[in-house]
């Protein structure tokens, strides 16, 4: 399990200061979202890394938080993240996103079979 919080104003300033950061952190689909949603997704990616034990070499774009038809967030992984998760037996992911009062939060649970 991993959890993370992001100060939305500080995150927005980082994106404005370093334009290429969006490309490093987010997939093409995620980049279309507003800053509040990006902050929550970044928190989820940080929480995901913590759930895996914070290994080096993860590519942020190998994780994508999508919205299911129900509106519920769903975490999809590939590449480096899938490679780190496989030896741990992780077969499914659970993610919860929230934002309020200028803070975005996320919890990620990695479930092994």
Overview of the molecule:
It contains four helices and five strands. The strands form two sheets. It has a three-stranded antiparallel β-sheet. The chain starts with a strand and ends with a strand. The chain has 113 residues and is α+β, with helices and mostly antiparallel strands.
Low-confidence stretches: none
Our estimate of the beta-strand percent is 25-35%
The appropriate CATH architecture is Alpha-Beta Complex
What order do the strands of the largest sheet run in, or round the barrel if closed? 1-5-4
- Give the % helix: 25-40%
The CATH class designation is Alpha Beta
Enzyme class: transferase
Domain 4'-phosphopantetheinyl transferase: 1-87
Subcellular location: Cytoplasm
EC number: 2.7.8.7
């Amino acid at each position: 399990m991993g959890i993370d919080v992001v100060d939305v104003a500080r995150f927005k300033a980082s994106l404005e200061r370093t334009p290429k950061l969006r490309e490093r952190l987010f997939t093409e689909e995620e980049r279309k979202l507003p800053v509040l949603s990006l902050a929550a997704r970044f928190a989820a990616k940080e929480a995901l890394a913590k759930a895996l034990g914070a290994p080096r070499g993860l590519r942020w774009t190998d994780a994508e938080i999508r919205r299911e038809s129900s509106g519920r967030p769903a975490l999809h992984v590939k590449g480096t993240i899938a490679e780190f998760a496989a030896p741990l037996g992780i077969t499914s992911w659970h993610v919860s996103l929230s934002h309020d009062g200028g803070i975005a939060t996320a919890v990620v649970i990695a479930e092994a079979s």
